[in-house]
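Aim 2 progress. For DNA repair protein RecO, the working sequence is reproduced below.
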Amino acid sequence: MLVKVEGIVIRSIDYGESNKILTLYTRESGKIGVMARGAKKANSRLSSVSQLFTYGQYLFQKSSGLGSLSQGEMISSFRGIREDIFRTAYAAYVVELLDKLTEEKTPNPYLFELVYQVLYFMHEEIDPEILTFIFEVKMLSAAGIAPEFNKCANCGTMEGQFVFSIREGGFLCHKCQHIDPHHLKISSSTAKLLRLFYHFDITRLGQVSVKEQTKAEIKQILTTYYDTYSGLKLKSKRFLDQLDQFKID
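Predicted structure tokens for this construct:
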């Protein structure tokens, strides 16, 4: 049976001399795997639509295992991402994180729209680091490890100055911060942005400007939290961290 889907290539692996195995994240069916025969050949009609980050319409032969890609029509290559090594690195991490935190053939139109918007805004040269933070925050729920961003994880108060506790799984107010001596001190701006990223509609995002200190605090929280609770060790994350060091130097 032939199936038509709207999808984004989130993984592309060479297979044999001329084929590729693609992982598509689709609006209709969630994550699916398809074999793109001959896609490694430069003159193949499947070559351009098999590139990482490509957004398009895909027609494939459905089967119990890997589907067989029959044809594809590109909607966007998100070329702006590929033209910059930093945007490419952030986008690679985003799609790998999506891949690792989702099950196959489980439709989730919200996640499809989320990854599409993140890639679109990266292509449009919105700060890729902020976009990655937003994606990481929103994916915490999909991973089943969402922390408490709305109130103190211990007493429930919504007022006052907060710190972040990895151990307690969220904000702690100034009265409760003593229960975790290893809490992370954060500014009020960091607390506000984490809460905003968790709740707001990414389609309403405009140009963003965040202080480097605030970025550093958000990165420390998200990196440590994912390392502690997700169990993921992603190659794209290691490469991104190396690039960030290069950028700082």
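The radius of gyration is 20 Å. This observation will guide construct design in the next reporting period.
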